[in-house]
Design a protein that fits this description.
CATH architecture: Alpha-Beta Barrel
Number of helices: 15
Structural class: alpha/beta
CATH class: Alpha Beta
CATH topology: TIM Barrel
Order of helices and strands: EHHHEHHEHHEHHEEHHHEEEHEHEEEH
Bound molecules: beta-D-fucopyranose
Oligomer: single chain
Helix content: 25-40%
Largest sheet: 8 strands, parallel, barrel
Number of domains: 1
Strand order of the largest sheet: 1-2-3-4-5-7-10-11
Radius of gyration: 21 Å
Distance between the termini: 25 Å
Number of strands: 13
Strand content: 5-15%
CATH superfamily: Glycosidases
Amino acid sequence: MDTDLTRPSSVAGPDPIDTLPPTFRWGVATSSYQIEGAVASDGRTPSIWDTFCRVPGAVANGDNGDVACDHYHRMPQDVALIADLGLDTYRFSVAWPRVQPGGRWPAHVAGLAFYDRLVDELLGRDVEPWVTLYHWDLPQELEDAGGWPNRDTAYRFADYAELVFAALGDRVRTWTTLNEPWCSAMLGYAYGDHAPGRRNLGDGIAAAHHLLLGHGLATRRLREAASAPIELGLTLNLATADPATDSAADRDAARAADGLGNRLYLDPVLRGEYPQDVIADLAAEGVRIPVEDGDLDVIATPIDVLGVNFYFGQLHSGVDEQGRDRDDDGKPVRRVVRRDLPRTAMDWEIVPESFTDLLVRLHRDYPGTPMVITENGAAFDDEPDADGFVADDDRVGYLTEHLRAVARARAAGADVRGYFAWSLLDNFEWAYGYDKRFGIVRVDYDTQRRIPKRSALWYRDTVRRVRGRR
Ligand code: FCB
């Protein structure tokens, strides 16, 4: 390519990205249901997503993960793509119903063999495996037994974590228990947008607590089982929540959004307590977090790394368009205010400055926990040329500005040690189906051909350049 994409002209002086240290970890992330396909192969049983995709209207175009990117059959080729981009780490998730069909003992040898091969393939190409144990594909049988609102699911998760660790722990150093428990709990059980599609706030909050409990239990099991040093943690999706104005009502709306979206997960894990203001907000809705004695100690089991997924930030207001701060039921108004900002194809506002703010705030409010950006990226309406190549300058711009935001947060003291682009491949974007493309590599779903986009080449060149200073 003749244009030097690694140095967009908008920054005066040295690019902040060049301040990232040689030890910085560079990777890409994916998740099992979004890419693997092969949903009925080698003994895999349905997950809640297989079921949810069959619900009319639940997923755009009636899409499902039956084939997805066919990664299950094309894994070596996909690993080669990662290696060719010069990345040092690959974050992938293990499909629970593939390695423990039905969600209960015993382990399933054929399912585990796939991840065993994947880990070996990665190591053979000098790419470090980073395993996420749960990226939303709960075995359907466990949902039938009550799902995450049922306390027992936390114990089932700890058993599952242990059996995956028994198979891969000799080669995998970094383990994330959960990906984005807010999404599993709230989108899945409170708002109904994700599997299993329940709409009940109490179920959502019970799910959140049991996910966190499962995280703590699994963390303890893995720590006990490990014979060599490992890095353990969980990944949270954190969005900045700023008040639209300085009014008391707007500030309270921002507090509430930050509480339910961010602190409800950060505080128990990193401080061993649930935030009092969130407990009070929930009580006003008639909802109690089902905490039992000792749970918070388990949840606060020390972690080594906090995974941060960042996509956008939002402005919040506590007054409606008529200026009222209570709705017809007398409840406080909670409203997201749209800004006149560029947006991605997900309609998410592009606010890289908020990313810096978030990381600096995490460093200030939860000191001492190293962070890795386990996901960051953007969907745009890609337009391939006749060869399938996508000149996705919008995605290059998004990634550039967000990497700069990370570098600025580091300069302000935030201990961020790595960055993973979401995602390696275009894939099944949950309720949006295949419409939204987040990949730095295009997938032609008719042929399953992979074509690196301009963003992939930019990422490769950026990593190479930053590392070149070693
Ligand atoms: C995150 C999910 C990931 C993907 C991106 C766009 O919330 O972890 O699977 O859907 O959003």
